[in-house]
Amino acid sequence: MTEAAGATSAEAWGLVPAVGLVVVAAITLGLLVAAVDSVVLAGGRPGAALDPVRSAVRSVLEQRRTTLAPDRLLWRLGSSAAFVLAVLSLAVVPFDGSTLVSTSADLVWFNAAEALLWAAVWLVGWGPNAVHSLVGGYRFLAQGLGYELPLMFALISTGIAAQSLRTTDVVAAQAGLWFVATMPLAFVVFLAGGAAFAFWGPFAAPAGSDVAGGVLSELSGPDRLLVDGGRAIFLGATAAMATALFLGGGAGPLLPATWWFVVKTVTLVTLLVVVGRRLPVLRPDRFVEVSWVVLVPAALVQALVVAVLALAGVYR
Amino acid sequence: MNDVVAVVGVSLGIVAVVLGVAVFVVDSMARATFALLGSFLAIAGIMLVLDLPYLALVTALMMTMEMAVMAVFMIMFMMNPAGLMPMTMVHNARGSAGAGLGVFAVLAAGVWLVDWPTRSGTAPADATVQLGEAIMGQYMLVMILVGVGLFATILSGTVLATGRGRYDRFGPDLRRSRPTDPVPGGLPR
């Protein structure tokens, strides 16, 4: 998996510490997202930041509820996969100049983790053999048909500009100009797509209150923690990846690169949460039409513009 | 190092075959779908240990989306959205088992009988770049033709499957300014 160019953190510090760092970073990011979210929900009361920790501990200790004749194997598989995939997607986010794994197709890695999440959430909906849960699972799939393609084009736009699918190369290619300057649409689509994969904010219809919580309705105990944690981590991973792909990674004056990366990621997380909580939930069937008629062509035009700029030598 | 690759590759191969068999053994549509996905993911793993990251990840990506879309089709065509009724993936059990075993035997024999060429030159540092150059250079025409063919297939599939065409939406003379749809879309048109 490892390549000649760009040393990975696994090579630099050994596999176990590097994996540990990614898991710790994932849990920190997840807690950050959940903390900011509960502060925003509580109307800015800072004490609410500790609520996610409390409910996480309660989830671990809680006894599981179950349903009549669930498909336990697939249900558990789906819940665990939601968490594992969120952590895996962080493995290719460049932190401090290196990633945990560096393949020559990092962007595809990130996208593959998202696609697998698609299947995992459907499993979470299907597993308990309950109607609201299943409706939520199918809503997630249907909504995915709308944002998956624009998200892919947004990801690939950065790859075209950097002329590499390796995330460390994408960061390095932004030495002169952050990609957000020439691909603002891809940036917005990427953030929206990430929020949609975490079925969060305006994309929360799969877990909507009109279907009694949808995919989340039958989850309890550790399973609930895994899925909710996976969503929060995934939203955080989206912010971190957007920092790397569009906001120049750790680039910035005075402060060291690591600090800039953290500052940008935390800002993006706050922005995502505050904006996301203020938007109404979109109906998946309406969103799919908007997506195919407006977003897909717009993302294609964005990729075309980037390709022309790349040929003109703007990114060198 | 080569031993490790061989052991991991063969184990993943066995996993792929076992999950492939599971597709025809389990009695639920969802389990069959995800057994098939697991089988494909094992094959993606084999490509990953063979140092072909792009092909491996694209296989994982595309197969996952394919299986997810299959789940959507489950409600569209099978009238069995929850897959709760026991079902079987096997029809004409004896004939299909014979055909399957026959094809497996032919392919497995081929592995041993074919005089495989030895590698000339060395592996490239970045197989992804090489793959991209091959697709976008030498085989560009083929890829364009395949793309147009696939697009035509998707269009004709949709046209055949749709229950409401443009005459239903815009009237027999296509004069309606707004289509009459049972469920309005997201755009004001």
What keyword list fits this structure?
heterodimer, A: mainly alpha, globular, B: about 190 residues, mainly alpha, 7 helices
Summary, kept brief:
The complex is a heterodimer of chains A (316) and B (189). With 316 residues, chain A is mainly alpha-helical.
Describe this structure in words.
The complex is a heterodimer of chains A (316) and B (189). Chain A has 316 residues and is mostly helical. Chain A has one domain (9-311). Chain A contains twelve helices and no strands. Chain A has helices spanning 9-13, 15-41, 51-61, 72-90, 106-126, 131-162, 167-172, 179-182, 184-197, 221-246, 257-278, 284-311. In chain A, helix 9 (184-197) packs antiparallel against helix 10. Chain A starts with 8 loop residues before the first helix and ends in a 5-residue tail after the last helix. The relative contact order of chain A is 0.15. The model of chain A is unreliable at 1-6 (pLDDT under 50). With 189 residues, chain B is mainly α. Chain B folds into two domains: 1-90; 126-179, no CATH class. Helices cover 68% and strands 0% of the residues of chain B. Chain B has seven helices and no strands. Chain B has helices at residues 2-25, 29-49, 53-77, 93-113, 127-136, 140-161, 166-170. In chain B, helix 1 packs antiparallel against helix 2 (29-49) and helix 2 (29-49) packs antiparallel against helix 3 (53-77). Chain B is extended and about 70 Å long. The model of chain B has no long low-confidence stretch (mean pLDDT 86). Chain A binds chain B through residues 1, 3-5, 71, 73-74, 77, 103-105, 108-109, 111-112, 115-116, 118-119, 122-123, 126, 129, 134, 138, 141-142, 144-145, 148, 165, 282-283, 285-290, 293-294, and chain B through 28, 30-31, 34, 37, 48, 51, 53-54, 57-58, 60-61, 64-65, 67-69, 71-72, 75, 81-84, 125-129, 183-187.
